[in-house]
């Protein structure tokens, strides 16, 4: 009987919650394959969610093994129990010490997410892919990169208010900041901040960040339409094709890094590595490295990042009202990001002679290049001859800068405010 | 201090900080475009 139980241990260990997690993983895989929503991330995340919800969860950690030596030692010196639990992954039951060896995905999580290595490497890759030329040609657009981060801070506030109403949620300032950063519309930034402030919520935060990024074509148009008139959406913008010198393209990432590092030192890992990737791209003498960052590095880290994020979706922590609220908060963040950008454009139009199409403001979120494409598509729908793509791309690139700057601000301000 | 108050302060300083840095980037772009116009580079290449 005991042998049978060993053979069919998986069946005996099976829980109905696993089925729910398979369904969630399946939906993510479906969205990736059928709808082409961020497939590079949603597919590994979905599969990771299935992997980690298999009986015994051996992909995350192996079954505890009795360690007689440590058992004896701790029985002699009980004070050591805490030391072994905290530092060496030991669990203690009935006075016996069991060593829990981390599984493959936990090793990846510990070394890639907890250390912030994966998001940082992704930043190098993203930097190597960004072309700042459209922004340098239309510098005014950079302001939308800041305005469209409004959703981050608004959502933090909403999360804190919710926590006041429902104290059981556990949304303190750090957790609220990690939820709000979904509004950065930038997966690595969300993971980076969450790994600092709310490690236990990395799963739902990342899923929300990447899901909403892929849902930008559905989220943004109604918000833009609600905040603008047809006349405003038809505003045409003059585009001057200014040539940008190579010197500027090389100096820009260096200057941005230095300034960010001085003003918000905690953002250096984000901004610095993004700009390092960009410098590799623009310097003109490291084409091989630039290509490697854009392709091999990006692909490999994305692959590992996705499945590792998925592995944090264990049913015990994921199937909770908190997850649902985080997903809703993510939507709030994206809506108010869009609103922030659009409203700034409208405000600028009150004072400026050269009118800005307010839709361009919505492209100030970091979802590149999707947001810019949507704005252009909407502009053409209102006026077939209206070409605002280059401005929208400028704002969209600014959004990538804005999101990491806002992330850096959150990283710097939260500990400071808590210390007051 | 109340958490909501801290949230309001975070919003205040966060948005202000983000805008300040972005405005600084704007100034840098404008300055760089002035100092290193495309024409100069072409001339130096010749």
In short:
The complex is a heterodimer of chains A (420) and B (46). Chain A is mostly helical and 420 residues long. Chain A has 24 helices and 3 strands.
User: What is the count of helical runs of chain B?
Assistant: 2
Question: What does the average pLDDT of chain B come to?
Answer: 85
What number of structural domains do the residues of chain A give? 2
Shape of chain A: elongated
Kindly report how far apart the N and C termini of chain A lie.
62 Å
Structural class, from helix and strand content of chain A? mainly alpha
Query: How many beta-strand elements of chain A?
Result: 3
User: Biggest β-sheet of chain B: count, sense, barrel?
Assistant: none
Bin the strand percentage of chain A.
under 5%
Uncertain regions spanning at least 5 consecutive residues of chain A: none
Order of helices and strands of chain A: HHHHEHHEEHHHHHHHHHHHHHHHHHH
> What is the first-to-last residue Cα distance of chain B?
64 Å
Quote the beta fraction of chain B: under 5%
Shape assignment of chain B = rod-shaped
Major beta sheet of chain A, specifics?
3 strands, antiparallel
Strand-helix topology:
The complex is a heterodimer of chains A (420) and B (46).
Chain A: H1 2-7, H2 9-13, H3 16-34, H4 39-51, E1 65-66, H5 68-76, H6 80-88, E2 90-93, E3 96-99, H7 104-113, H8 117-129, H9 133-137, H10 142-147, H11 150-165, H12 173-180, H13 187-197, H14 202-214, H15 216-227, H16 230-233, H17 246-263, H18 268-283, H19 287-310, H20 315-318, H21 321-351, H22 358-362, H23 370-382, H24 389-419
Antiparallel strand pairs in A: 1-3, 2-3
Helix pairs in contact in A: 3-4, 4-19, 7-19, 8-13, 8-18, 8-19, 11-12, 11-21, 12-13, 13-14, 13-24, 14-21, 15-21, 15-23, 17-18, 18-19, 23-24
Chain B: H1 3-35, H2 38-45
């Amino acid at each position: 009987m005991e042998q049978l139980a060993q053979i069919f241990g998986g069946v005996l260990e099976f829980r109905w919650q696993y089925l729910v997690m398979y369904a969630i993983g399946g939906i993510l895989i479906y969205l990736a394959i059928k709808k082409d929503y961020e497939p590079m991330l949603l597919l590994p995340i979905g599969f990771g969610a299935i992997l980690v919800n298999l009986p015994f969860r051996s992909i995350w950690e192996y079954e505890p093994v009795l360690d007689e030596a440590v058992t004896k030692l701790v029985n002699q010196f009980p004070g050591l129990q805490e030391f072994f639990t905290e530092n060496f992954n030991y669990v203690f039951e009935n006075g016996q010490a069991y060593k829990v060896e981390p599984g493959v995905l936990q090793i990846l999580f510990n070394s890639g997410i907890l250390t912030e290595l994966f998001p940082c490497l992704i930043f190098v890759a993203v930097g190597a892919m960004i072309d700042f030329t459209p922004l340098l040609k239309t510098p005014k657009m950079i302001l939308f990169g800041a305005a469209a981060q409004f959703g981050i801070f608004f959502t933090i506030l909403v999360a804190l208010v919710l926590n006041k109403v429902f104290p059981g949620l556990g949304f303190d300032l750090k957790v609220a900041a990690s939820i709000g950063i979904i509004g950065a519309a930038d997966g690595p930034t969300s993971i980076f901040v969450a790994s600092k402030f709310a490690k236990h919520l990395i799963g739902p935060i990342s899923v929300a960040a990447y899901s909403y990024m892929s849902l930008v074509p559905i989220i943004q148009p109604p918000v833009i339409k609600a905040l603008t008139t047809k006349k405003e959406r038809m505003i045409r913008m003059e585009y001057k094709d200014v040539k940008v010198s190579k010197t500027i393209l090389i100096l820009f990432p260096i200057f941005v890094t230095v300034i960010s590092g001085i003003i918000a030192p905690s953002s250096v890992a984000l901004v610095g590595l993004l700009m390092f990737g960009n410098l590799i791209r623009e310097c003109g003498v490291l084409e091989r490295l630039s290509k490697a960052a854009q392709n091999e590095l990006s692909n490999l880290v994305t692959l590992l990042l996705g499945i590792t994020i998925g592995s944090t979706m264990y049913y015990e922590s994921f199937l909770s009202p908190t997850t649902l609220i985080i997903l809703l908060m993510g939507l709030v963040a994206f809506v108010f990001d869009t609103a922030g950008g659009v409203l700034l454009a409208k405000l600028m139009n009150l004072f400026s002679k050269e009118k800005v199409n307010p839709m361009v403001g919505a492209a100030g979120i970091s979802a590149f290049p999707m947001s810019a494409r949507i704005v252009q598509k909407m502009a053409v729908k209102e006026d077939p001859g209206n070409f605002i793509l280059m401005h929208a791309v400028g704002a969209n690139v600014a959004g990538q800068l804005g999101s990491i700057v806002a992330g850096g601000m959150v990283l710097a301000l939260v500990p400071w405010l808590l210390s007051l | 201090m109340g958490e909501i108050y801290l949230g309001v302060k975070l919003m205040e300083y966060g948005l202000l900080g983000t805008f300040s840095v972005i405005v600084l980037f704007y100034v840098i772009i404008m300055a760089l475009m002035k100092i290193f116009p495309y024409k100069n580079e072409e001339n130096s290449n010749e």
